Amino acid sequence: MIDRRDFVKLTGLSLVLVLTEGGFKIIKGAQEEIINPVLWANITKDNHLVFLVNKSEMGQGVWTGLAMLVADELDFPWERVRVRSAPAGPQYIDRKLGMQLTGGSTSVRNMYDFLRQLGATMREMIINHASEEWKVPRERLKAKGGYVFGNGKKASYGELWEGAVKLPIPHKVKLKEPSEFIYIGKNIPRIDAKEKVDGSAIFGIDVRLKDMVYAVVERPPAFGCKLKSFDPSQAKQVEGVIDVFAISTGVAVCGKDFYSAQKGRESLKVEWTESSIKDFNDQKLARYYLNALNRAGAVARHDGNPEDVISKAKVKVEGVYLLPYLYHATMEPMACVADVRKDKCVVYAPIQSQTWALKTVSKITGLDEKDIEIYTTYLGGGFGRKANVEFLREAVEVSKKLGRPVKLIYTREDDVKSGWYRPMNATKFVGALDEKGRVVAIHHKIAVPAVFEWAGMPSKIDRAAVEGIENMPYSVPNLHVEFVKIDLPIPVWFWRSVGSSHNAFTLETFIDRLAKAGGRDPVELRLELLSKNPRARRVVEVCAEKSGWDKGSHRGRAMGLAYHFSFGSHVAQCAEVSLDKKTGKIRVHKVVCVIDLGPTVVHPDLVVSQMESAIVMGLSASLKERVSFSEGGPQSLNFDTYPLLIMEETPEIEVHIVKGQGPMGGVGEPGLPPIAPAVANALLWGYGIEVNQLPMTPDYIKTLL
Amino acid sequence: MTEIYINGNLYKVSLPEDTPLLWVIREHIGLTGTKFGCGKGICGACTVLLEEEPIRSCITPLKAVKGKRITTIEGIPANHPVKRAWVELNVPQCGYCQPGQIVEAYALLKKNPRASREEIVRTMSSHLCRCGTYPRILRAILRAQSMMGVKT
């Protein structure tokens, strides 16, 4: 049982508060160049660094990556570094994002300078204090490995820290030269590995408070319907059920434990209003999206005269694609613990978006943000889904009504029914080639819901809808990119790599169709189209080389290559694929992945794990995943009907990192987009199949043979 | 009152006998290393050992384990080669499915220390990991075998 004080201690927060009692002024965001170490870190008397990290650890290794930056500049032993989650609050915003949020593959990029500055500032203050204390000039002191040495004296940082923080905070301290790094660029152990192996890591679903009760929420069976009425009488008779009441998203059933709440829900009678899309099933959705391609949309980019060039072209290529709604399938379903009192509220949640969470809780409770404490636990997977705080809002609504701490748990079925999917989309490409097989025009149109609008950031051209297409690195003289907005009551959200998760598939398979129509090698065509982009060219070249592209098919297997630029990083992947024509079953044997994320690679092995992770997730989606619909609601409610990739289906993965010049790129997302088109391209060249839909299930593939 | 032994300790719980073992372990015993993933025995996040056999605790009612010995992730020694290999190879990402994976791998190697690569892949394919740690899980099990001095 965790009581609140224990958890606060666990987060390291109390340690930091102790130090703030020393008459220390909290420096507000306005004085940006000054970093107040006390807000971010503490060094305990027994010489442990406790670093409060403002980013959510959801598997990407961000706690390790960010703590390395501090520990490197501080020059502190890695095994004595402890990371705790920073509470939600304006002091912990990512200044480049303007909010506290983990997303967009930005964490290391955005925090790199700041956290190195933090470590260097701390080290400087420790040296300054030792110099005063020992009356030894600074130049004769050395701070290394968690100790300060000089004039025959030696003290740990921990012994000096309490005095050090009373000194003025230095401005603009000098940072290390890359040659002086002790951790940056090296594969040091993940800081969260041990806890995650011994079972002690605390996820949102694991938090336990004194007197806590449990809640589940019965949700509508379809989207676009609302609660009409409900009869709680039978549910209330179930042993252990405490209360049953309506909240904004459905009917909450509260019990003394999860099982009684769940059993109570089974006896609940609920009536919903008719869904506004009650006749929507998979076929209707497909027609709806494809028909939308006939509508005029908003033009995101228009270069030259693509219509004219296409109409006069000798060789014209067309592709019409239909890609499904996808479910995030975090292994930890949504779960949140909330304790709402009259003058105070405490929340523990596995969330990616602390700033939104704070605003949401303030709105529901009417409390001032300073009276709200939100602690981020480990996230059992995020992939964008846990940036949506609706589940947190539900927990707060329930706790407010009950006046006691509550843990709200989504079952797997609840999780699927809540929606917030990667949007379905239909895309049409028309391209033209000249007599030499050069790409002279591309005309593109996508019909897709607006993810950013669902996230409260509407714009004429949804950024996610056309990302990767509008800003494609290929030089095409006549180019048209158009967005038709789909408005359906099916909630959509950010899903790992967002718009690139579908746009890379359509663009990259279309490039190969152009190559085929023009009698060109797809790698050679890409290199021609990338003539103005040396970094992109290089990852394609290295990928072709490492995969043995020139040697043609391997061991009788088909090969396909795709390239995509997203979140600041260039990634190319080559897949070795075979197809059993009898069953339609695809086997991906090997994937060679090349990433250029810029000149600085903080932790190469974490980059490799993120590439492995993105390839497995992307392959899972491209071979197996689709949210199936009937009567306006999802039908694939658990892993039996929404299967994920398993170990047997996982290819051998080989990752190469190349260092290009330019700004640092992201890592969490860019590895995902190229895998689906790489596999589909292998089918095009090896088996003559044009894949227009995902997932590439055996049933679908058989229709193409 | 139902008596069960978890990680060598005797617990007496007074709960409906159809309560899934998972929730008994998590909410009533307070060991939260065993995870809820699907509630249908598909994903493997809730895997524990019943005597020596890995079972899905989310679909195992309390009455089925009366008086039996259960081992959870917390009951596997910290210095066991499987756990050590997992840390050494930076296997966990989000970490949520890992206790179930580790319990399964531990049981496999206990039963068959010389399990072949194919056997390992077949056994571990009954577990889902959304982070895609499969390549590292496989490497870690092979590594654990070599730590145990097993030649495969």
Textual characterization of the structure:
The complex is a heterodimer of chains A (705) and B (152). Chain A is of the alpha+beta class. Chain A has three domains: 4-198, 2-Layer Sandwich (Aldehyde Oxidoreductase, domain 4), CATH 3.30.365; 204-274 and 334-409, Aldehyde Oxidoreductase, domain 4, CATH 3.30.365; 282-325 and 421-704, 2-Layer Sandwich (Aldehyde Oxidoreductase, domain 4). Chain A contains 22 helices and 26 strands. In chain A, the strands form seven sheets. Chain A has a seven-stranded mixed β-sheet, with helices on both faces. In chain A, helix 5 (107-134) packs across helix 6 (157-164) and helix 17 runs parallel beside helix 21. Chain A is globular. The termini of chain A are far apart. Chain B is an alpha+beta fold and 152 residues long. Chain B folds into two domains: 2-75, Roll (Ubiquitin-like (UB roll)); 81-147, [2Fe-2S]-binding domain (DNA polymerase, domain 1, Orthogonal Bundle), CATH 1.10.150.120. The model of chain B has no long low-confidence stretch (mean pLDDT 97). Chain B has helices spanning 21-29, 81-88, 98-111, 117-124, 134-147, and strands at residues 2-6, 9-13, 47-50, 53-56, 69-71. A five-stranded mixed β-sheet of chain B has the order 2-1-5-3-4, sandwiched between helices. Chain B is built from five helices and five strands. Chain B starts with a strand and ends in a 5-residue tail after the last helix. At the A-B interface, helix 7 and helix 20 of A face helix 1, helix 2, helix 3, helix 4 and helix 5 of B.
